[in-house]
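Hi L., both proteins are below.
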Amino acid sequence: MSFKAIILLTRAEGATHEQFADWWLKQHAPLAKQLPNLRKGIFNLVENPVDGDPDGVSELWFDSQADFEAAYASEIGKSVVADSLSNVSARRRMFVVENTIHSSACMNRLGLVTYVAREYDEAIGFFVGKLGFTLVEDTNLGDDKRWVVVSAGEGASLLIARAEGEQQVASVGNQTGGRVGFFLQTDNFDRDFAEWTARGVKFREQPRREVYGTVAVFEDVYGNTWDLIQPA
């Protein structure tokens, strides 16, 4: 279960709601997006707030409260707080537990995709250690088998399955017959490209600017190819 924090912000004395919105969405949001281990962030701008009401409500998701605290203890986190305090008259945060009582959205979704690996820990080391995925589950099933799930955040997670038998072993590193088989979206291509390159991730090309966004093909630990994409 993820951890969620809500922060209520009220504009600085003498500032208009429009000035608050311009600062919050154009200056503060790009800074907040850099918080370490931030899984999801939503900035809700209050419409026509009356005196005393907050002008903005931010929702921030982390894997745990410890990750939240560590994010705000980092240099980026300190900068986020300092930027807030310089531009608001009131800042209140609270921790919440979501309880969905209704959803009209389609309940069908792709939950897991099987990723065939040579060894569990080898794959975990790449996805968690180099790409920054979250280890969602690692359960011992007995008979030397494990249920291992890693996640990049939103969307389907990867179920890491250790190859057994000739056919599965032959598919390691070639799950899609040489085609790009996985498409990983990012909100900060330059950051991820630089960090992953420094960690030893092999990119097959330099970044390309396409009509649909910025993209580069990289290889995972076994040679399967992925697109790292920042949508346009």
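That was the first. Here is the second:
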Amino acid sequence: MNSTPTQTETANRRLERRPATKTNRWIFLAIIGTIVIVTLLPMIQAWQAVNAFEQTATDAGFTLRQAVSLIVDEPVNEPTYLRGFESVAVNDGATAELAIASTHATLSGTFTQTVAFMGKDLVILPGAVIEGDLQIAAAKSVTIRGTVHGEILGNFGRIFRPEPTQELPPASPIP
């Protein structure tokens, strides 16, 4: 009897191994697919939210101003959409509606209309006043050291509103 396997026996052995190999491939593809979906889905949802925020401002006829770090030192007098890829600072308020999209934004001055924000952190500095509503499309944190007369609406992770410090009466002299 010949001890070397025939071509038919070799082919049969290959076929016996293939189902396990195909199963491993399907498992590997399922794992990779799950990772891709779990990673991409939040990114797609974030992109859609930013796009909707931007579209709302554009449809309302807002003027676009954008920069990597946008600093606005003069009062804003027309409806404006401020897009800062890193930060936005509005230093002298606004007499018109504002929409702000940026990672970080700081507001000072008086804002007579609604202020809309989408980003990570919004800080309303001491002395700043928002007479209209503050609409948060999305924010991780909002710090209000100034005053908001309107409603605070929207989606934010945490809102920090420190209490004003009260002056203590002068200490009486020790006898």
